[in-house]
UniProtKB/TrEMBL annotation, chains A, B, C:
This is Peroxiredoxin family protein. Coiled coil: none annotated. PANTHER family: CONSERVED WITHIN P. AEROPHILUM (PTHR34655), PEROXIREDOXIN FAMILY PROTEIN (PTHR34655:SF2). It comes from Allobacillus salarius. It comes from the Bacteria. Pfam families: DrsE_2. InterPro entries: DsrE2-like, DsrEFH-like. The lineage of its organism: Bacteria, Bacillati, Bacillota, Bacilli, Bacillales.
Amino acid sequence: MSERKKTNIILFSGDYDKVMAAYIIANGAAAYDHDVTIFHTFWGLNTLRKDEKLQPKKSFMEKMFAKMMPRGAENMPLSKMQFLGMGPKMIKKVMKKHNAMPVSDLVDLAKEQDIKLLACTMTMDLLGLKKEELMDDIEYGGVAAYIADGEDGAINLFI
Amino acid sequence: MSERKKTNIILFSGDYDKVMAAYIIANGAAAYDHDVTIFHTFWGLNTLRKDEKLQPKKSFMEKMFAKMMPRGAENMPLSKMQFLGMGPKMIKKVMKKHNAMPVSDLVDLAKEQDIKLLACTMTMDLLGLKKEELMDDIEYGGVAAYIADGEDGAINLFI
Amino acid sequence: MSERKKTNIILFSGDYDKVMAAYIIANGAAAYDHDVTIFHTFWGLNTLRKDEKLQPKKSFMEKMFAKMMPRGAENMPLSKMQFLGMGPKMIKKVMKKHNAMPVSDLVDLAKEQDIKLLACTMTMDLLGLKKEELMDDIEYGGVAAYIADGEDGAINLFI
């Protein structure tokens, strides 16, 4: 058994600011030599969507979900302070000014740091998301995969 | 002291999708032989409400809360994608198609798996919820009950 | 190394009810002899804002954020049940009736119990919050400070 500490984050939210928080904590933990897993479920799955319009075979309901849900973190709303839709743009402008990384860069950094990005297969089914719509270098699993990681976690969070 | 691992979930949210996530994790952990407690507080308490119109003696404010809050998970909104109120119906339709359990069944399964369902007495007071409005086979406690369970938890989550 | 158990709460939310839950758990854990830290980030930072109109030098965007964000917990909205803005007032009225502490008192109690109140410097930069706008007796840190506390935590929560 590895002596490295584990950080496991369930990323349920699809809000830009919460996804940002999740990836900052994950990257921070990895920098401190934790084995880190981000388990993307429900709206958090949208973080892993490719920013391309793909047309896999879908039911009407699945098409509707696909249309309404953002493709990738950079298209997500904020959890607060939407300012009639201006919120995400404002935050990104301030982030740029402060040389803070946009979420898409935090995701790339996570991959470089060998953070395990896991997509919840059960919610993929539910929301009609296909593997071809998600990033290539990720893993797949269900609640069993989470419990296996989580029960040894030094830091477990639901975001 | 038992050697079984513990999972403790604080269920604060009263959104259908978050309650579903909480109960899926809880049932998963129980399947992996964890002792599991779900501590229902604030809007999460609505999961435990009976779907009957009861008329216990209440103050005006308590009546107003009672009227506005859903009775049971199946009457809850989604945290996202409300689609003018169609969201919960859509999710349930897709869930049915995929043979996924509705939350009310997940609650029944939790009881069968001996998951401890605990109602936060402090918030019950605050929102004016009476014991007769909640399910029969649950337990009651305050923050002390949570800390006692939580401090030995392998997995602790706030949802 | 201390033998006391640790509770670490990341307070991301700026909703009155969630901040209340965070401070009730924190004060409960401290009463049970835990070393407790609340790491205030994003909208949770508003809990630590002084209820005074200060005019530090700010950019236009920073001024806009400052204007839109509540100064202190007592000016926060609820996460649910806004009732056209009446929600927070209603909750506070019921709390008073039940002799429950308002959040501002829970913050004072936390200080008395030596709970470490930490402000996330990265988000302060992002939202343009200056130290002079925050309470005096708090600490400052980034994600490294959180990981250091969190990896030894008995109870770790993201609220």
